């Protein structure tokens, strides 16, 4: 089979560069397009020289429509608003849309559902194998332990991260809520300040730490009387997210339109 034609949106950022590297490393994928916003220093220049190497014959474009038109898949770790706009273009082009951006509002998520009627969208708060295994374990443990065990999710990220709780933390919260058979929105406690009163039974708490260059650390704590169970994942290299995104694109090739996540890609079950 011919390599899959893949493009990277927002190519100059830290994740954008890693996505380019991940595509280059994978024999099943071929980089055919990269984008940046209008007015960016890289706009109109050769990607290779932008990255400090020889020319690659691939220009950094500002019009994503043209890039989508020649792509079988696009890798999108941009922003919530941009990824929603890109979903519409993916639907028009019937291109697989792999979304690693997090922090979407409910109304924005509805746009992905609409676009997924026409193409495959793989959207995940985290694209690593380990984190998705953690989510599967979280759901199983939450189902096994009743509300006498309080659930707290603690996450740490670098100082530049702009959303909290992280997409991964929310994914873990969704897994815990699913295990308990409740909706996360009904039991989530994302902020404590001042005199909050006692902890509500059955709630799922979140705490977000930010500092330095932490790639990502997540603990799911099940705290009972006299004992605690802690499930933990620590990421030390962002390339694992980029490689997961390429894996997702290749998995979605030829799939029927719909919304998918990394549990589908890794066949971990729901």
TrEMBL record:
GO CC, one annotated term: cytosol
GO biological process: diaminopimelate biosynthetic process; lysine biosynthetic process via diaminopimelate
Active-site residues, as the UniProt record annotates them: 157, 161
InterPro entries given in the database record: DapB_C, DapB_N, DapB_N_CS, DHDPR_bac, NAD(P)-bd_dom_sf
CDD domains noted in UniProt: DHDPR_N
Pathway(s) where this gene product acts: Amino-acid biosynthesis; L-lysine biosynthesis via DAP pathway; (S)-tetrahydrodipicolinate from L-aspartate: step 4/4
GO MF entries: 4-hydroxy-tetrahydrodipicolinate reductase; NAD binding; NADP binding; oxidoreductase activity, acting on CH or CH2 groups, NAD or NADP as acceptor
Record bears the keyword Protein biosynthesis: no
Domain Dihydrodipicolinate reductase N-terminal, residue spans: 4-127
Similarity comment text for this entry: Belongs to the DapB family.
Protein name: 4-hydroxy-tetrahydrodipicolinate reductase
């Amino acid at each position: 089979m011919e390599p899959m034609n893949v493009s990277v949106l927002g190519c100059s950022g830290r994740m954008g560069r890693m996505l380019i590297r991940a595509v280059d490393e994978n024999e099943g994928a071929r980089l055919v397009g990269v984008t940046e916003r209008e007015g960016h220093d890289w706009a109109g220049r050769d990607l290779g020289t932008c990255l400090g190497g020889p020319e690659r014959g691939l220009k950094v474009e500002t019009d994503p429509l043209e890039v989508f038109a020649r792509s079988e898949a696009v890798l999108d770790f941009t922003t919530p608003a941009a990824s929603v706009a890109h979903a519409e273009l993916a639907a028009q082009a019937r291109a697989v849309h792999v979304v690693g951006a997090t922090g979407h509002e409910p109304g924005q998520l509805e746009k992905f559902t609409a676009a997924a009627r026409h193409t495959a969208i793989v959207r995940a708060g985290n694209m690593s194998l380990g984190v998705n295994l953690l989510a599967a374990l979280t759901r199983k443990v939450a189902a096994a332990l009743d509300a006498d065990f309080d659930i707290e999710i603690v996450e740490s990220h670098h100082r530049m991260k702009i959303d909290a709780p992280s997409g991964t933390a929310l994914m873990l919260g969704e897994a815990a809520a699913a295990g308990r058979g409740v909706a996360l929105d009904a039991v989530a406690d994302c902020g404590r300040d001042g005199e909050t009163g006692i902890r509500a039974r059955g709630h799922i708490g979140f705490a977000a730490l930010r500092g330095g260059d932490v790639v990502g650390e997540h603990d799911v704590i099940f705290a009972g009387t006299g004992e605690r169970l802690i499930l933990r994942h620590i990421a030390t290299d962002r390339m694992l997210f980029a490689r997961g995104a390429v894996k997702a694109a290749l998995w979605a090739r030829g799939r029927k339109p719909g919304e998918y996540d990394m549990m589908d890609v890794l066949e971990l079950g729901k």
